[in-house]
Amino acid sequence: MTSTTRLPATGDRVPHPARGPRxxxxxxxxxxxxxxxxxxxxxxLDAARRRDPAARSGVEVALAYPGLHAVWVHRxxxxxxxxxxxxxxxxxxxxxxxAVTGVEIHPGATIGRRLxxxxxxxxxxxxxxxVGDDVVLFHGATLGGKTMKxxxxxxxxxDRVVVGAGAKVLGPVxxxxxxxxxxxxxxxKDVPPGxxxxxxxxxxxxxxxxxxxxxxxxDPAIYI
Length: 224
Ligand SMILES: CC(C)(COP(=O)(O)OP(=O)(O)OC[C@H]1O[C@@H](n2cnc3c(N)ncnc32)[C@H](O)[C@@H]1OP(=O)(O)O)[C@@H](O)C(=O)NCCC(=O)NCCS
Hints:
Strand order of the largest sheet: 5-8-11-14-16-17
Strand content: 15-25%
Bound molecules: coenzyme A
C-alpha cells in the first residue's frame, strides 16, 4: 500500500511525494535483522574496550584487535554455515580470518554475545563448541575435541567464564557460569559454576568468597 497525504486545497488524498511506496514486510524484517546484527557487532567492540585496560578508544579497538576481528568474521561465517549451500564458503572465510588474526573459530561453533578474545593468536574453537555470553578467552586457549568421532565433541562454556592463556579445555565438558580456567590448565572434566580450575590435569578449587569479612564485634560484656 502506498502512503498518502491530503491536499490542503481540495482535501483529496494523493500519494505522498516524499515517502514513496511503503516497504514490504519482508524488507522491514530484513532491516530489523541488519540492525540487530550491527548492534551485536557494536556490543563486541564495547566489550573489548571495557575489558582491556590498555584500550584507549573505540577506533583503536576496531582497527587493532585481532581477537575482535575474528569474532566479527565468525558472526558472518556462522550465518553462512546455517545455509547448507554456503558451508564451503563459510569454511574458507574462517580460514582467511585464521590466516589474518591467528584465531581459528569453526563456523559451526555457537558463540554468545560480547565474547572477548584478548591478544588473539593461537585460540582454537571447535565446531560443536558452545560459548556463553561475556566470556573472555586469552591467547592460546583451546576449546577442542578429545576424539575424532562426529557429534558433540567440544566444550560448552557458560556465561562470564574466563579461560586463561594457553589453557586447553578438551572434550564435551561443561564449564559452569562464572568459572575461571587458569593459564596453561588442561581441563578434562566438568568445572562447577563459580570455581577455578588450575593445573594439568586441572584440579577444581572453590573461589574464595568475595563477601566482605564479618566485622569483629568488640562487646565489652564479654570481658566481664
Ligand atoms: C586461575 C586464576 C584465574 C586464579 O586467580 P586467583 O583467583 O587470583 O587465584 P590465586 O592467584 O590466588 O591462586 C590460587 C591458587 O591457584 C594457583 N594458581 C593460580 N593460577 C594458576 C595456574 N595458572 N596454574 C596453576 N596454579 C595456579 C596459585 O598458585 C594458588 O595456589 P595456592 O592456593 O596453593 O597458593 C589466575 O591465576 C589465572 O591463571 N588467570 C589467567 C590469566 C591469564 O591467562 N592472563 C594472560 C594475560 S596476557
